[in-house]
Amino acid sequence: MGAGHWLRSRIDRFVDTRLGPDYEERSRALTVRQNEYGFDPFGFSLGSVKYAVLVSRWLYRSYFRAAVHGIENVPPAGRVLLVSNHSGQLPFDGLVIGMSLFLDADPPRVVRSMVEHFVPTVPFASYLLSRWGQITGTPENCRRLLSDEEAILVFPEGARGISKPFSQRYQLQDFGHGFMRLALETRTPIVPVAVIGAEEQAPAVNIKPLARLFGSPSFPVVPYPPFVPLVPLPVKYHLYFGEPIYFDGDADDDDDQIEPKVRTVVHRIQSMIHMGLRGRRGIFW
Amino acid sequence: MIVTGVAGRLGRLVARRLHRDPRYHVIGLDRRPFQDRPKDIEHHQVDIRSKRARDVFRIHRVDALVHMGFMHTPRATSAEHYSWNIGGTDRLLEYCAQYRVPKVVVLSSANVYGPRADNAQFLTEDAPLLAAQAFPEMRDLVEIDHMASSFFWKAREVETVILRPVHILGAVKNAPSNYLRLSVIPTLLGFDPMVQIIHERDVAEAIACALKPGARGIFNLAGPGEVPLSVVLRELGKPTVPVPHPLAKPIWRAAWRLGLNSFPVDEFDFIRYVCMVDASRASRELGFRARHSLRETIHAVLDSRE
């Protein structure tokens, strides 16, 4: 007990020193609803997120050296859906977007993203992700957070996007319609986001027979050790935030009414991707 | 007004809360004796399925029934449970219709929704009751809830209220309070769901709110807020043993067979997944708000009131 306590306080002191006064100031500027024990209703806790921020900030600043464009397009307060392309086998794109809103937006915002339904069944991930502000991806959760004026990140391509092979980089996969229905229902602006870089962080091919064998949606293999995409390549990230788009309409319309609206968002993201690709000098710098 | 299950710890608390109100004359129905019964509470030590229980309805002009006398003895057979819980509830609702009882309050539980990985963080009253899927021992509670809600629609002249409180903590003997009273508390390694808890006195208060004329429908009841399970355990200062979940069930099942513990193995899901409710309807329509803070509610399990 004593040793554990001592170790914990040492780690805390180390983390606090490394995070520095900038972190202090930014986390104070956040609007987080907290109860007497420091938790919000979804389990988010500033006391626990700082460990994740220390690692994520290093990834964001030093490893991926993220360059952020147009972050002033994200409303400083109020409900918003950030809709982005999704790629790279592991969701570092979500982490980088989250960090950009915390470290580079003014005022800083907490972004909550929707995680897959299987995540709560995985030990540790089940609660750590919720302490860091992530939520189980159900429409009810999304609706509730939007009505609480929070910022939510969605990847409408879902698993189709993140697990696509290298040959399909920068080709957007089919977008689900759920995000558009939620935006219409809750009258939430959509900020399109294009992530450049993530698509090259894990140049994988998908071994379909193995995926079938393990019953997983894909079995990605990369041409360097450890051959599974656990460690992303140190690509340079560019994030482009577009102007908010406001949609009007009935959330319960038929798919063929929703589809054109979704396509508007897809086109916006696709053109930002093209612009970003034209503007960058190379994959790693 | 009749209160079933009045001899239980929560029952006594409710009876005491209600008999203080001069408008109410409280009649207890329970097959157990009522210890330290206040003098103005009438108690009938009968089986709710018996003819004598019917007589109580016949003789008195009953203004309200508060039904909370459910059997939840994990070691009793399912046939016993079924006959007591389902058969008993069926009879009581029948008497209420027959003798024109204007108000029925049934104390169900938020557990009827069931702890599930894909649960929304906050379930509303119209969420499906899925607890029985993974946890057959919960079937009775789910069915009682369904019976009460169909009674709500069938007998429109009766004001039926179904209350679904989250984990009730206090001196009560229920699974969550017993769990927190263990001297060493097992947890599942790598799981720490958010939980909602409510003080037993707040539940008694909510029942009083539900008895107000005009109140009807289904209401989730939540306490002062939501916290991770680990915070509750830390607040109590109890030592915990994290068990990897693939091992937990076999160990627990063996201990159960040997009679070393009193928790059915399926209840593990309650310390693994979220099962939380949105209680805004109760505050809007019943005017109910939990008075006890999180800290008070957590410490209520150590309260040795007898």
Short description:
By secondary structure, chain A is an alpha/beta fold.
CATH architecture of chain A: 3-Layer(aba) Sandwich
The assembly state of the depicted protein chains is heterodimer
CATH overall fold name of the domain at 2-170 and 197-224 and 275-291 in chain B: Rossmann fold
CATH-defined superfamily of chain A: Glycerol-3-phosphate (1)-acyltransferase
CATH class of chain A: Alpha Beta
The CATH class of the domain at 2-170 and 197-224 and 275-291 in chain B is identified as Alpha Beta
> What's the CATH topology label of chain A?
Glycerol-3-phosphate (1)-acyltransferase
Contiguous low-pLDDT stretches of chain A (5 residues minimum) are none
Total number of domains of chain A = 1
- The percent of residues in helical segments of chain A reads 40-55%
Overall shape of chain A = globular
Termini separation of chain B: 24 Å
Give the biggest beta sheet of chain A.
7 strands, mixed
Give a structural overview.
The complex is a heterodimer of chains A (285) and B (306). The model of chain A has no long low-confidence stretch (mean pLDDT 92). In chain A, α1 crosses α2 and α2 crosses α3 (92-103). Chain A is globular. Chain A is of the alpha/beta class. In chain A, 42% of the residues lie in helices and 12% in strands. Chain B has a domain at 2-170 and 197-224 and 275-291: NAD(P)-binding Rossmann-like Domain (Rossmann fold), CATH 3.40.50.720. In chain B, α1 (9-19) packs across α7 (200-210) and α3 packs parallel to α5. In chain B, 37% of the residues lie in helices and 17% in strands. Chain B is an alpha/beta fold and 306 residues long. Chains A and B meet through α4, β4 and α5 of A and β11 of B.
